[in-house]
Write a structure and sequence with these properties.
Length: about 350
Amino acid sequence: KAGGRLTDAEALRLFEEGDLPELGEGAHAIRRRLHPENVATYIVDRNINYTNTSITYCKFCAFYRPPGHPEEYTLSKEAMARKIQETKALGGVQILLQGGHHPYLKLDWYEDMLRHMKSFDIHVHGFSPSEIQHFATVNKMSLHDVLVRLRAAGLDSIPGGGGEILVDRVREAISPLKIKSDQWLEVMEEAHQIGMKTTATMMYGHVETVSERVEHMRRIRELQDSTGGFRAFISWTFQDDGNRLGALVPHETMPTSFDYLLTQAVSRIYLDNVPHIQSSWVTQGMKIGQVALGSGADDMGSVMMEENVVSAAGTTHRTSVEELVHLIRSLGKTPVQRDTLYREVRVF
């Protein structure tokens, strides 16, 4: 390895020729080195989709509705307040806030929403780089100014949504109206520079090649080298029910659980500078989510009291704290409920 790091060519070889049990073991050894305490973490939060109105028309999304559609909605403050209170009552410590690309809402509307949410004393992990770029465009403002204002209004951190694959050939094919790779990375870099931590994601198994998956990870690793602002990496497979992209992906090439575990193991080995790798039981189901903890993942992600985007595409895995605790314990690990910053909230 070059300087102890996995090169792109080596990563590609692992994808094409790697032995899954061996790779899983290697990834798990790295995870143990980074996190020697024998724990697996999870967070209790709720995904609030504040609007489903969107003008980016992504082919892989079954959730959005165009402006003027009878099923479009934007949540009221009262509805938001009710969801936050329910979340806190069940021990939730974070709201994952995501919506569409609404053509008419101005920045002060978002600032008002954030201030209202923060009055409930909860961490807001919100928007996506694509939404933030959209706010800058609609409000004719710089990314920096938009981020500074959102942060001042109560935005605590930014999830890596809309990462898909950070290769423009792929983005042109699946979401031509959404931001390109450089812009996604630019939003993250700006956020990191003003002291906000973020996560990075990868949604794969559609029209990308394996070498494009490696390119996606390389771009994450390069930005992380310069900013150190990514807290975790989460990858998941494309879900093909109820969206237009499904028609472009032959059924026999749809990613399997094997592909998922292989990709996650390679990501743990390759992304040597990202502290946490999250298992995606939301798309894989609980058994594979559990196996992922032995293939490089140290975190089970969210109990997720509400989730509308993946389930709109036909995948509806659900869990509870009790089930997560049981799955983690049955691997001989200590379950730890965490907050967004990976601090302990509760140890079982």
